[in-house]
Amino acid sequence: MKSVDPQPKSKLSPDEEEARRIVRAEMQRRAVTYKMLAKELTRAGEPTTPRALISRITGGAFSFAFAIRVLRVLGVSHLDIRPLKSR
Predict the structure, then answer these.
(1) 86 CB-near residues (< 8 Å, 6+ apart)
(2) Exposed e or buried b per residue across 13-50, where buried means at least 16 C-beta atoms within 10 angstroms of its C-beta
(3) What is the pTM of this model?
(4) Residue 32: which of 44, 24, 21 has the closest Cα?
(5) For 1-16, what is each residue's pLDDT tens digit?
(6) Alpha carbon distance 68, 58 (integer Å)
(7) CA distance 41 to 37
(8) Engineering a disulfide at 12: which of 45, 60, 68, 73 sits with its beta carbon 3.0 to 4.6 angstroms away?
(9) What is the C-alpha separation between 15 and 5, in angstroms, rounded?
(10) Which residues are within 8 A (CB) of 58 and not within 5 positions of it... i.e. 6 or more apart?
(11) Contact 3/53 with Cβ under 8 angstroms?
C-alpha cells in the first residue's frame, strides 16, 4: 500500500510562491480582506469578486501586471525582492 502525502507539493515555481506570499503579506499588514480588495480593484477599473481574488491569489499563478495593480491598490510604494535562498 502506498502512503499518501497529507499535503500535496505545490506546483508553483519559487517565484510564483514568492509573489503569492508577498501579496498576501501586504494584505495582512494592511488588514485588507479579499472583499475589500475586490471593491478597491473594481473601483480602480479591474472588476472582480472576492471569490475570484481568492482563487487567483491562493493559486499563485498570476501576472506581474496583476501583482502591481494589487500592490498599488494596497498602497505599497516600495518592495524588497532580494534573491531567493537556495533550499
Answers:
(1) none
(2) eeeeeebbebbeebbeeeebebeebbbbbeeeeeebee
(3) 0.78
(4) 24
(5) 454 444 445 688 888 8
(6) 16
(7) 6
(8) 60
(9) 24
(10) 20
(11) no
The grid coordinates listed for 13 are 515555481
pLDDT tens for each residue of 20-68: 999 999 999 999 999 999 999 999 999 999 999 999 998 878 999 999 9
Q: Which three cell numbers stand for residue 9?
A: 507539493
State which amino acid sits at residue 51. R
Residues sharing a CB contact under 8 Å with residue 73, sequence separation 6 or more, in sequence order: 37, 40, 41, 44
The three cell numbers locating residue 78 = 516600495
